[in-house]
Amino acid sequence: MVRRVYLTLYNWIVFAGWAQVLYFAVKTLRETGYENVYDAVEKPLQLAQTAAVLEILHGLVGLVRSPVSATLPQIGSRLFLTWGILYSFPEVRSHFLVTSLVISWSITEIIRYSFFGFKEALGFAPSWHLWLRYSSFSLLYPTGITSEVGLIYLALPHIKTSEMYSVRMPNTLNFSFDYFYAAIVVLAIYVPGSPHMYRYMLGQRKRALSKSKRE
């Protein structure tokens, strides 16, 4: 019971955060244009996305059945975009890809968190909600991934010139780190990672919808 109450509250609270992100994004897009979308959604976006770190802990301690191996790269890449790109490099915030990113993420998460919110609270979710949960990714995942890759690419020149987060030798730790090349490595991971995750979600969809038909 404690587990169900906690997960119900968690899912609906984060759902409310993403609903706020979508509302402010669409409102700003209609009123002043895509250039101002990031400023309108910055705080709720950071809070809602960072809250997803708890999902890794949920998997580690067994509160949920989702494998950490699938959860970690998804959440890691989003945190990298949220904090390592958008927060750190204001130069890319006014690009239209920010709007497509925010809308893709928020719709995906509104569907996902409300789905699990119903399941934890009621023990089930409506069949239409199940279909949305396991089908909407076919459109939203490609638009989200394209936006992520595009924004990292656009940030590369600013990462290189600013040298933010880079560590140069010599130093007391005898250690060096180049954030520019780290970002390139992240981009490279998207090449095999994105098709792999898409196939994983297709498999999830097949299993979930087949199970619902049997029931």
TrEMBL record:
Please give, as recorded in its UniProt entry, the membrane topology of this protein: Multi-pass membrane protein
Q: Which reaction does it catalyse?
A: a very-long-chain (3R)-3-hydroxyacyl-CoA = a very-long-chain (2E)-enoyl-CoA + H2O
Subcellular location(s) of the protein: Endoplasmic reticulum membrane; Membrane
Q: State which Enzyme Commission number(s) the record gives.
A: 4.2.1.134
Instruction: Report the transmembrane regions from the record.
Output: 7-26, 95-118, 139-159, 179-198
Q: Its biological function?
A: Catalyzes the third of the four reactions of the long-chain fatty acids elongation cycle. This endoplasmic reticulum-bound enzymatic process, allows the addition of two carbons to the chain of long- and very long-chain fatty acids/VLCFAs per cycle. This enzyme catalyzes the dehydration of the 3-hydroxyacyl-CoA intermediate into trans-2,3-enoyl-CoA, within each cycle of fatty acid elongation. Thereby, it participates to the production of VLCFAs of different chain lengths that are involved in multiple biological processes as precursors of membrane lipids and lipid mediators.
Return the protein name: Very-long-chain (3R)-3-hydroxyacyl-CoA dehydratase
Q: What's the source species' lineage?
A: Eukaryota, Viridiplantae, Streptophyta, Embryophyta, Tracheophyta
